[in-house]
Amino acid sequence: MSHAQLAIQLVETILLSPMNTVKRRLIPPNYYLFAKASHSSGVMAISSRDKSAYIFRSYDHLPHDTTLIVYNLGYASNVLIANVARATTAAPTYFQHANLRGERFIDGGIGYNNPSWTAFSEVTEMHQQHRQNWRSAHQIVEQSPTTDLEKRSAVGVLVSIGTGKPRPARLIGRAGLSRYVDYIRLTREMATDSERTHRSMVERIADIRDTHYYRFNVPTGLEDIKLDEWKTSKDPQGRIIPDTLRKIEVETNIYLQNPETRRKITECAKKLVELRRARKTG
């Protein structure tokens, strides 16, 4: 049995293990159902059926006419949270695909490593659906001018958090077999490059009224950490030191102490509070 297979078994054992007696008393029986989440949540994977994104939702998003690209519309995903976690973290070459209801899923990071626009489209499309229902309920014909409330973006604040900027993609310059290796490497880097999506988001959001977009991402120091890296060492007393985790913490704290980062966090927090207060009073 390979290390990857052992890792899969370990993860699945932890995720799907029965709860102990104390926890059973404190947590309701439907706790494990993703569709029963107390807040609206959506996480992405890639479906083998059509090789496109698949959103596991804790809410209903039913089909109707739309001009936006929205994935697998329907009712909330009535599956275990553990199975959703397994499907959305099945990174190729690290874990095997996950089987759910006769369909195979892999990690959504391949091609959708930064799902910001997908999230924006999801909320915007649902808002358009609610707007149509609202106009119908108030007997407003579709040709009537939209109200100021309707013109506002459905997304007040969109926060995107990265896992560290990657190194700039190296150009293909070698010959022979090495050239094809470079093609594969470059294709992989482009498929998982979340910064390309960020740059696209900046351009798209600039023309959208009332939407404030914030991206937080450590610029340097984390680009050489691999997906499966976990380095440790021991201190003089023999205690284990999680070197990889410590490096991530150090670089992240340096980034958070940067004056510009602190300004953006404060601005983002104020905007969220404003919107929350406006929602309560509105």
Walkthrough of the structure:
The protein has 282 residues and is of the alpha+beta class. The chain is built from 10 helices and 8 strands. It has a 4-stranded antiparallel β-sheet with strand order 2-1-4-3. Strands 5-6 form a two-stranded parallel sheet. Strands 7-8 form a two-stranded antiparallel sheet. The longest helix is centred in the last third of the chain and has 23 residues.
Overall strand count: 8
Q: Give the SSE string.
A: HHEEHEEHHHEHHEEEHH
Total helical segments: 10
Gyration radius over CA: 22 Å
Distance between the termini: 59 Å
Structural class, judged by helices and strands?
alpha+beta
Q: Order of strands across the widest beta sheet?
A: 2-1-4-3
Query: What is the overall pLDDT average?
Result: 77
Oligomeric state: single chain
Percent range of helical residues:
40-55%
- The backbone outline, from C-alpha atoms, is globular
Q: How many strands, what sense, and barrel or not for the largest sheet?
A: 4 strands, antiparallel
Concise structural overview:
With 282 residues, this protein is an alpha+beta fold.
Secondary-structure blueprint:
Blueprint: H1 3-16, H2 21-26, E1 42-47, E2 53-57, H3 81-88, E3 98-100, E4 103-107, H4 109-112, H5 116-137, H6 148-151, E5 157-161, H7 177-191, H8 194-205, E6 212-216, E7 232-234, E8 240-242, H9 243-256, H10 259-281
Parallel strand pairs: 5-6
Antiparallel strand pairs: 1-2, 1-4, 3-4, 7-8
Helix pairs in contact: 1-3
